[in-house]
Amino acid sequence: MKKNSTEYCFSIDANRRAGFTLVEMLIVLAMIGLVAGLTIYNLTGSFESGKINTARNWVNGPGKAAVTTYYLQAGEYPTT
C-alpha cells in the first residue's frame, strides 16, 4: 500500500529525535563566551579608571593638605 504525503510526514517526525545539534550548541557557547569576554573587558577598564580618579582626588584633596602641613611644620617638602 502506498503512503500518502501526510502519513509520510508524520512517520519522519516520529523517527526524528528532539534536542539540539552539536553545531547549535557550539554557536550558543561561542556567543556566550563573546558576551562574557566583552563584559569582563569593559568592567576591567572601568575599575582602572575608577582607581585613577580616586588617586587624583586624594592628591588634590587630603594629599595636598598633608604635604602643605608638612611644609609648614618642617620648612621643606618631603623628599619621598
From TrEMBL:
Protein known as: Type II secretion system protein GspG C-terminal domain-containing protein
Species for this entry: marine metagenome
UniProt keywords, alphabetically: Membrane, Transmembrane, Transmembrane helix
Membrane-spanning segments: 20-41
Family matches, as InterPro entries: N_methyl_site, Pilin-like
Keyword flag Signal: no
